[in-house]
Inverse folding.
């Protein structure tokens, strides 16, 4: 089956630093990748949708300058949390899809803790 | 904002019990419904892709039905086993949008 690799799985950083999270599709070409954030006991909240070679589309309320998304190739998308603050501490998970009729393939997620 | 609701939020059953839970979604402009299983420390895994009213899908002891006219899907697990313990997510796709909207999930715990 399709595999999506997400790294790192866990990161602790100091307030003010930036953190980059990678999402790779290992055995298929992902035309679309989605980045989600999950708050405790909440559903997956879509942050942004990225298509290879184009700018990401951010959901309302998500700061694009804060959460930089790059989808430079059909197998790699990155999310950079810039100038992280404690309120950015959360679980971030990416998913990828080959075509619009396919289900999503998820990474394992990244637990970010900002101290 | 699309309203996708899952119930119950959590469920505890004994090994061998059969169980079911619900995903409700807008009944208009339906395109597809996906079910995922999310085990602890793993990534969500797709179970079913459902597109037609009346669809019934089955994978082993797990099956799902779809009613697009009334806007709900049921997931059934027959003879639950401890390894079925996971959060089950549904994701609704409306026509014209390729972006899924997820429910909060149903957390299932199967006690041996």
């Amino acid at each position: 089956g399709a595999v999506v690799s997400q790294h790192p799985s866990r990161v602790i950083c100091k307030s003010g630093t930036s953190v980059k999270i990678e999402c790779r599709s290992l055995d298929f070409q992902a035309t679309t990748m989605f980045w989600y954030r999950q708050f405790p006991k909440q559903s997956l909240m879509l942050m942004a949708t990225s298509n290879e070679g184009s700018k990401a589309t951010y959901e309302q309320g998500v700061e694009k300058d804060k959460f930089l998304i790059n989808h430079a190739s059909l197998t790699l998308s990155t999310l950079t949390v810039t100038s992280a603050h404690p309120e950015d501490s959360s679980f971030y998970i990416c998913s990828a899809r080959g075509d619009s009729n396919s289900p999503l393939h998820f990474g394992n997620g990244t637990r970010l803790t900002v101290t | 904002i699309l309203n996708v609701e899952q119930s119950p939020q959590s469920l505890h059953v004994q090994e061998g019990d059969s169980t079911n839970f619900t995903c409700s979604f807008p009944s208009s402009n339906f395109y597809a419904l996906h079910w995922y299983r999310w085990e602890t420390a793993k990534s969500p895994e797709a179970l079913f892709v459902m597109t037609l009213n009346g669809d019934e899908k089955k994978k082993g002891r797990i099956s799902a039905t779809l009613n697009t006219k009334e806007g709900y899907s049921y997931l059934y697990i027959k003879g639950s086993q401890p390894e079925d313990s996971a959060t089950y997510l549904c994701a609704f796709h409306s026509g014209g949008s390729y972006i899924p909207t997820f429910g909060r999930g149903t957390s299932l715990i199967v006690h041996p």
The two ends of chain A are 37 Å apart (CA to CA). Chain A touches chain B through 23 residues (CB under 8 Å).
